[in-house]
Please model this.
Amino acid sequence: MPSQIVLWDPDDLADSDGRIDYRYENIVNSPITAAQYLANGCRISDTYELTFTNDGGTVTVDIECGNDVKNPFQEDDVAIVADASTWNYVIPGWRFKVAVAVATGWKARFANGVIMTAAGATTDVLNEGVIEAGSNSTPQQVAAKNVGDADSVTTKIRAVPGRYYTPLEDAAEIIDYILPHTDDTREHIAVPGTYTITFDNFADGTGDKAGYKVVDVLVDGNTAITAGAMNGAEDFQYGHDDYNDGGDYLAGLRLRLKNTTDDPTALTITLVVLDGAQYVYLAPDVAGSPGSYTAGDLTLTESGQASGTIRTGQHSDFWEKWVPPDSEEPGTIRGWDYAIRGMTV
Model:
């Protein structure tokens, strides 16, 4: 396995509970029998507490989000299938199965970008909550830990536009993920807004696409991908032969289609690109305090190593804060993601 940098609690580096990117725990009894984090780019950093109701075999769940009242996935009376075998898709980035015996009052908690212990206790990290314009969030120290089996060099991190897309289950059947572009000169240029993704010209692939289905992917009615192979292996993005570079209708993003023969032409998927990344500032850790903040790339360096180097099993601490300007008006939920890059040696 190459080097792999993930975010971690700097005060709990030896414990798996310290991993910040994703966790879940059953809180009251055991309603969740299985859960999978999809790593599909559909994520809003927050906690999601699920409280189940079983009314004569009809199972619903109330979803309470921990730190952002504008989170669009906060909802009551969401229908759930509780047969211990069906995947449920009701919170971004996850799917899970629910126990047949689930009863009213049983609870589970999921965390995206939040520290969560095995007992379900949480510490906010990337879910900043409501910050007044002209103020800043409390600066937070975060560790970037190399969990791979090789060293990482020229390691850097930057904030990039976050995103989510709905409906969750329909999208999961067709799209493997929507993530930032693989080129670090383009990974940050996604334009905040709401986009409608549809599909057309579903057909059998020919030539080097033989054996797979192909489909056009349209964004707001414009062809972004022409005859994209549904093979679960290609990133359709600026620079790909099947991507419309001239229109660049998924600017700053890459989309991968699942390896499936399902016809997606009846589906409509809504993609929302969030605008919080522009207000994120990062600083290196200097003896436990933040150094100089930057709104761009930050080089991550393990203490005592050459610039940009994090050895396997080691970490580099940095600081982050969110600073919306005085001129910013209240809006819908704002969020971001982090792109972390490094070369394996």
Q: What stands out?
A: The first strand starts at residue 5 and ends at 8. The chain is about 0% helix and 45% strand.
